[in-house]
Amino acid sequence: MGEPGHTPIAGSLAETSRGARRSRQRRRIIFSELALTVTFTLSTLHGIAEREELTSLPVFLTAWLLNLLVLVLCCTVPWSRIPSRWVIVVPLVDFVAIGLSRAAAGESMPGIGLLAAFPVVWIAASRVRTGTAVAVAAAASLTMVWLPLPLGRPITFDALFDPILLPVMLCGLAWFVSSLTKDNRQRQEALRASQAALRESVEAGRTRERLLNTVLDTVSVGLLAVDADGHDVLMNARQRAVHSAAAPPGNADPNESELLLFGPDRVTPIPPEARPVRRAIHGEDLDAEQVWVGTGRSQRALSIFSHAMHDDDGTFAGTVVSFHDVTELVLALQAKDDFLSNVSHEFRTPLTSILGYLELTLERDGNLPDGVAGHLEVARRNAVRLERLVEDLLAINAGSFRVDPVPTDVGRVLAEAASSGQVRATRAGLRLVNRAPSTLPAVVDPVRLAQAVDNLLTNAVKYNRKGGSITLNACRSDDGLIVEVADTGIGIEEDDLHQIFDRFFRSPSVRTSTVPGVGLGLLITKTIVTEHRGSITVTSERGKGTCFTILIPQPALGTVLA
Ligand code: ADP
What we know:
By secondary structure, the chain is of the alpha+beta class. The protein has four domains: 9-193, no CATH class; 222-325, PAS domain (Beta-Lactamase, 2-Layer Sandwich); 331-398, Helix Hairpins (Orthogonal Bundle), CATH 1.10.287; 406-559, Histidine kinase-like ATPase, C-terminal domain (Heat Shock Protein 90, 2-Layer Sandwich), CATH 3.30.565. It has 18 helices and 13 strands. It has helices spanning 8-50, 58-76, 89-105, 117-125, 130-146, 148-151, 157-161, 165-218, 237-245, 276-281, 327-364, 372-398, 410-427, 446-462, 494-497, 508-511, 521-531, 557-561; strands at residues 222-227, 232-235, 261-262, 289-293, 300-310, 316-325, 406-409, 431-434, 441-444, 469-477, 480-487, 535-541, 545-552. A six-stranded antiparallel beta sheet has the order 2-1-6-5-4-3. Helix 1 (8-50) packs antiparallel against helix 2 and helix 5 runs antiparallel to helix 8. The two termini are 92 Å apart. The chain binds adenosine-5'-diphosphate. Residues 459-460, 462-463, 487, 489-492, 500, 505-507, 510, 517-523, 546 line the site of adenosine-5'-diphosphate.
């Protein structure tokens, strides 16, 4: 495996940029020198035009030729193979050429010295420090203006300091250009650094995006993100598959309202405005919304969740919707319900017959041999229990218990429930106390209320401990009728409390015990209470006991008694 940054592609990219940099440097050298050579040549030609005898001065011509030679070298030297610091030789030789030319031409070409500005700028703009640039400019220009002195006039104080303006000017220029270049270079470096950081963060963003896309396409959940205007901004592979499965035949790219979406019965289309995604786009949070998509054998059940996104100022910014394929689960539950319903129906007829004959035998035949009546009574009791279980299963499968609330004396209903509970309690060694008033008018379904209270009393007996007690109480409050069943039994774990009204739920500790039950009693009780538009609550402490409270809203008392 290659190291990061040393891959063949990275290597060839670096090579390309290095090559481009070198050819830029070569061009810069040639054009810089060409600018001087053109100016030098024009000045020289102008000087010759003014003073023809200049052509007879070998130093003058040598200087010119030297400059031309430097230009030729600039064009031919393989700069890429020479250390870059050697480039500085070019402006230094230029100094010599300009100095010789100035010395030869003397006063006849006073402006020729100004050409020294070219090498000065060159040196100052290269990577040397400002001090070095100024020092080189000073040394070169002083040499240039003082060199002719020994050749011509005597060296006096005035002769030394008369031409000092040019070196001063060139030093200032060197300092100025060097500072500017340094500033510019710093800015370029900062720009390069920020470009590199930007490139890095773009690359990191791409890597994150690739990772996110891979994760999204790997999960087995369909995911869709939409913006505030309802436009798709993200859809993973799974969701794309679901989308195409929900497309009507002949429409490869349907919009949301054209998708084949059905309710729980699998055939009733969901109207566009009630569709989960439409509602999610309008800011609604969905929690396990179930729909069927597609038709025929490829129809799938989806459980849909969504969560709205909001900006910092709380404005709706879109939503994320997840689609879980729950087809297998839904079909398994359906199969279980069908099985329970069929089995219950099959049980009911023979059970009714068994019970009928048992009761007939027990009622009519008074001369049964010793013990037989007792055995038949046990058989009858168990048959009644079985019949009740069958009834419960059928009622639960049907989905609801119809209640028919009528003005009722709840005191009497509770007294009857307490007295049949009393038999079971005494047999289990428990004490059952009925604290409910003997008369308590309310509007309830007496049979269903009795069934609900009976379930609670049965549980209070089943999940109690030897020597424990059960208290039944009831009253009217401003909120309605309150019925309470409290026991001093084993109690319920806090973690189980939120599940005890679920279908077939039994506490783990109870499941491993010998206490009979199938986990339907509390669900039936809750369904009865809910059908009365009431509520049931539970408080419990492990090892101390449990208290169930039923609240059924009531019309004003006068109405009840009338
Ligand atoms: P079943 O009694 O047939 O198991 P229920 O629906 O009546 O089913 O009760 C569900 C579960 O709730 C029980 O299995 C038991 O774990 C718990 N439970 C119900 N009532 C009580 C109670 N009074 N004390 C302790 N646990 C209870």
